[in-house]
């Protein structure tokens, strides 16, 4: 019987617990923000700061916490577990996006596919395609905004949509202002995922930190994108310097130049055929990545699509990672 520990017991942690038991795993310990639980999840065994004392007799530890800071907390969890010789599977984005240099030597002990794209598998897809002569990549990496813009296109009011995504667990419950929620998704969430994709899939010599990507999106720009919801989606693009052309009609959240690549994110028009193909494949909470390969696209266009949000697909992706590590 495979044995696991779970750190974090929110929506994803609870779904992991449920799915692991269904698949015949034994849960040795659970760590919440306050306590450690052993066996009985209703009766705490110890304070959470003593969690490492219980990190033994497990095959893998699942890290299912939100990003509390810039990723340092998650980084400390990951390195502490791996120092004990135990692999870690994570869905937290801060550690890989801001502390990649410290994790790079131990990546073979980390399952990370759920950090970007949820259950879509886009990280491994892009890693496999990178050596096929990629000249540009376009990706939908934020399920919350994709869901919102799909619903706006149906004529539903923004306030109602945002309440729905919070109820479904696709957005943080604390923030009430819909514009601020969107800015939070377009900024901290997307920049972390962009950093992770670049560092894991593009094999750069220079590490891209999420905090190095400067977001210039304003309330007014978001409102414009809402008004033009029929013709826009939030897309992140990676284009080689020679292929990049700035488009005046895009609502740009960020542009970053690194190692011959231009990375841009924003509310892009879907009358661009490539963007249209990407967006038509990724409705509601689906995420997608599209690659254009070869000179002038002669190598073809390849697409990966799958569920980007929701506790169930994320938990499933994490368990798949764990199986691959063991």
From TrEMBL:
Residues 133-321 form the Homoserine dehydrogenase catalytic domain. The keyword Heme does not apply. Keywords: Oxidoreductase. Its EC number is 1.1.1.3. The keyword Translocase does not apply. GO terms for biological process: threonine biosynthetic process. Belongs to the homoserine dehydrogenase family. This is homoserine dehydrogenase. It comes from Candidatus Jorgensenbacteria bacterium RIFCSPLOWO2_12_FULL_42_11. The lineage of its organism: Bacteria, Candidatus Joergenseniibacteriota.
